[in-house]
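Homework-ish question, so no full write-ups if that breaks the rules, but can someone show me the predicted structure for this set?
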Amino acid sequence: MKTNFRTYYLYLILFFLAGVIIIPLYVSVMGGFKHTGELRTNSLGLPIDWKFENYISLLVNSDFWLFLWNSTVYAVGTTFFVVLFASMTAFVFAHVKFAANKFLYNYFLLGLMFPFATAILPLFLRVRDFGLLGTSWAVIIPQIAFGLGFSIILFRGFFRQMPKEIFEAAVCDGCSYIQFYFRFTLPLSTPILATVSVITLTGSWNNYLLPLIMINDESLYSWPMGIMVFRGEYFTDWGKILAYVSLTLVPAVVFFFALQKYIVAGLTGGAVKE
Amino acid sequence: MRSAKLDALLSRYYTIIIFLIPALTIFTLFVVLPIGEAAYYSFFRWNGYGAPEKFVGFKNYEFLFKNRVFILSLKNNFYIIAISLFVQLPFALLIALMISDKLRGAAFFRTIFFLPFILAEIVTALIWAYIYDGNYGLVAAIWGFFGAEAPFVLGDKDWALVAILIVIFWKFFGIHMMIYIAGLQAISKEVLEAAKVDGAGPITTAFRIKIPMLIPTIKLSVFLSLLGSLQLFDIIMPLTGGGPSNVTHSMVSYLYYFGVMRMKVGFGSAVGVVIFLICLFIAIGYQRTLMRDDNENKF
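A: Not a homework solution, just the prediction itself:
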């Protein structure tokens, strides 16, 4: 009896909370299908008069696709180099004994505590002085730099848990470290490769501050910058803005459901001691 | 003829050099040096062109701590931290305890509650800017239902920050819940079984066993929450952009408006250094938690 009573309240709370999460997302997607007048009178219900123009006008808008493409370039470029460099570094930390091993590892760890905001202005000057402004590298390189620390931790943890025997056997067979890395370590590390890739991809895809600082040229805008410009143009024309929001929301949600396992592993894996 | 041993040694050095150089170079040039440069530039008045020449000592810092808007942004950051630590995290813990057991539908709730975390902050804030809109949004609908004139919370000096805090809560409690759930799953089943045999109910178990065993996890989520709160920017921009009358700035949005947009490199760097020092202060307190690097730990 008592248990049933408790369970009842438990579900009541959980469903209420789920509603608080879902309703804002639902009204946004539906809002994109409504006329401005209907948004005023009917913000919760399904659209009475479905209006597809908001979505269609975006889907045929070349800027919309351009911004998505730019963000894709930033995300893929960043992820490729973060995965490559961080895994190489972590491999050395995990398998190669040398005097400065621990020191260098802590050096990267320390970087985790440096707030990105502190470095913004000097970072901008460095990127400018290297002549990278106006190119995709202005976004990609700083993102790589700030993505390395956490990825190195994740890779190192994984590499260390791989059975030592494989490594010893391979070295005896005359396999060099570099060959070992490419022939054994990487192929055996798919779960952690997936985890680091997914985290880096999402981080870059959603990044707003860095591209905002680095990019002046509208043809290089990322989609979060694009959506903010769009908001500035159609200030309270919510139907248009919500359509834009929804079009970026849907892929994110699909991506999340497909790769949830890796996202969660990455975000909690570094945090939880086993 | 070189010996095999020498070959192995050389191979080791090549590996170290080849594998470490890319990461070390990029990390040093684009993370470590800029932090040091920020400290240096903060003593100058400089627009970023030519070399910094106009040395002003601590003037930038003096101005900063006499500036009403900056002090307000500092306060806002501390409100955000306080609400995160004392409301959001306990709430996340409660939910984690509620759905970590053999509750039916646990996976469903976990996924739903975690969902806002993966949305871009910009998108989250735009959705809420709509919801808060006194003419069109949900707030308007709810007020309208009761026949009242809806407020424009984001334009109201007293309520704008509260509105932002609600969005932060909505977006971030799920990740902390997820971290706690992962921590709870790592608690050994035998301990929990033993408690059950001894007649401990769910509440006793939570307070006497689960929460104490979760302390390292809680410390980490507190750390992440602190650093995240201090760097808040994206959520503020679409909601209020720091307004009305500059009362909802965070330190980073202050840095953006008053340092970056006006290309005041010295002054902006001083803001950056203040943020850095607060983070450093927190990190030192956490040194032992974060650096416990024994032989097998990940962190």
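Now go work out the reasoning yourself. Hint: Confidence is low (pLDDT under 50) at residues 293-299 of chain B.
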